[in-house]
Amino acid sequence: MPQPFNLEEVMKAKADDPSALHVVLFQEVERYNALLANVRKSCAELQKGIKGLVVMSADLDAIFDALFNAKVRVARARRDGEAQPSPDLKLAKK
Asked: Which domain covers residue 63, as residue numbers?
């Protein structure tokens, strides 16, 4: 699994050009790092669940099934503060 980006280093590298695109880059780096942290946590919990060290929750079971079937698991309802899908994406799912 890839290592997270060092946001401070990215910001220092882009400090000489105050482009609006760099603001988007910084936001995406933060989101990417959060996603990696979530995947790492889920993988660690799943490994414990497979070994029988923790009880397999419905979420862990869904993750296991998705990995076993080589499918992309759609995230459940997002927590407060996280980005919500745009209305266009909601319509596309129907």
From this structure: 7-74
